[in-house]
Amino acid sequence: MFEPFDDSRRQAHSGTGEDRSGACGEQMSRPHRVFSGTLDQLAEVRRFVRLVADGHEAVYLAELVACELAANAVLHTRSGRPGGWFAVEAGFGPDEVRVAVSDLGSGREPEARPADIEAVSGRGLWMVELMSLEWGSEPTEAGRRVWASLPVSGTR
Q1: What is the C-alpha separation between 30 and 126, in angstroms, rounded?
Q2: pTM score > 0.85 for this model?
């Protein structure tokens, strides 16, 4: 049901354009958990990331990004329909943190863009892009995985 990161199929978005394939290397473990496709699961997403982080200094940034990606899965994909689900994967290494959310897909590519000043929503992936070293998405058998590589220091 949930596949590990597969960098060969990814569509990456990064400010530098450098290839960071395998940047996390073998030093990272990536536990995952499947959640019901409802917004009330976001608190559980934060608890899961905090548990996996085990005191890692980038835990708050990882919680924020994981929750944003999970909220997007519920609000903008089939994961938010009755019986839907999404999965969160998190890995904490000495130089980089990776989080990913797999969902049931929507038929659209995720896109980071600044929202209109009057809009009350629509800034989530733009925020993820600003906080990440790199982010991207890839198709999965069930839908799509959106992932982000985060700096350990919590700043870009």
Answers
A1: 24
A2: no
